[in-house]
Amino acid sequence: MKVIKNPKALQKILAGHRRGGQSIGFVPTMGALHEGHLSLVRASRRENDVTVVSIFVNPTQFGPKEDLKKYPRPIRRDKKLLILEKTDYLFLPSVEAMYPPGQPVYVDTEKSGRDSLTDRLCGKYRLGHFRGVLTVVAKLFNIVLPDRAYFGQKDYQQAVIVRRLIEDLHLNIFLKILPVIREKNGLAMSSRNRYLNHEEKMRALSLSRELFSMRRQIIQGQKNLKTLCRSAARRLSRSLDRLQYLEIVDPVSLAPAQCLRGNEVVLAAGYVGKTRLIDNVIIPPLRGVKKRLSKSRLTR
Ligand code: AMP
User: What is the pLDDT of residues 169-223, one digit of tens each?
Assistant: First the structure.
């Protein structure tokens, strides 16, 4: 595995691969790698000739009171893991390389109040977070120019916003969103899980437990979303120190679902101690709904 720190140097190397007709897969990360990240690397390895992984703790996506300084940076361990996965290139830029001095340019969605993809859910609690994400992802995409980019469903809202970035800026990149990788007990893997002590880990489990329970209830026919959310939120508020949101949303617009058609997403975020955790589950296509839809289409 070659470790490249300079954006221009990486561009030059990758241009050579492209000229040789090789496809490039890209996995952007902030490091402190776990099986979730590695599942993305493995998918990229399977589907591309060359795999580039970036590790960059992006300062512009952290709020002033967030954990930028203490975000884990076990770079030697990360390198070892990536070598074991036969990663071709690790892109490891400095903050100065990614944000050259002078007036910065940012990428952001239009602020259309409540309808903005970036102002809902996590965006409501992490002001400016998605502007930082969009900006760094746009920079990384322009440096790597990948054929395929790999993101995790774990950060569902982020994946939806990156899809919009690709569509709206006409980027020629195929976005792959891969399932959440979980611990055996259901806890979604996250670099931030290492902040949790044993007791906090036990309480953190309630997040996935409630989400899966809601999913099960919906599959079994529960249609009253308000009741479902209210009782799950009540239980979650007892085990988490602070529940920020628990919502069932449309998978594309992220607007609150009015009724269930299948494919909606149930998302939650909250704090256990000082650690902020997020998780989500996707509702499968619901039996019976298709029939109703096609019937109404016929009668229209
Ligand atoms: P991060 O290093 O947290 O910025 O994450 C880098 C990428 O890994 C993002 O696309 C995440 O959605 C993805 N990711 C993080 N945790 C998981 C997980 N448990 N399962 C699958 N993908 C994940």
Answer: 999 999 999 999 999 999 999 999 999 999 999 999 999 999 999 999 999 999 9
Distance, CA of 28 to CA of 24 (rounded, Å): 13
How far does the centroid of ligand 1 lie from the alpha carbon of residue 157, in Å? 12
Q: Is the CB of 151 under 6 A from ligand 1?
A: yes
- Pairing of β 265-272 and β 242-249: antiparallel
Residue entry with tokens 């920079």? 139
pLDDT single digits (tens) 237-296: 999 999 999 999 999 999 999 999 999 999 999 999 999 999 999 999 987 765 444 333
Q: Read off the pTM.
A: 0.95
Which atom of ligand 1 is least distant from the CA of 182?
19
**What is the Å distance from ligand 1's center to 41 Cα?**
11
Distance of CA 244 to the CA centre of its chain: 17
Largest CA distance in the chain: 63
Residue numbers annotated as active site: 37
Q: How far is the CA of 178 from the centre of ligand 1 (A)?
A: 9
DSSP H helix total and E strand total for the chain: 10, 9
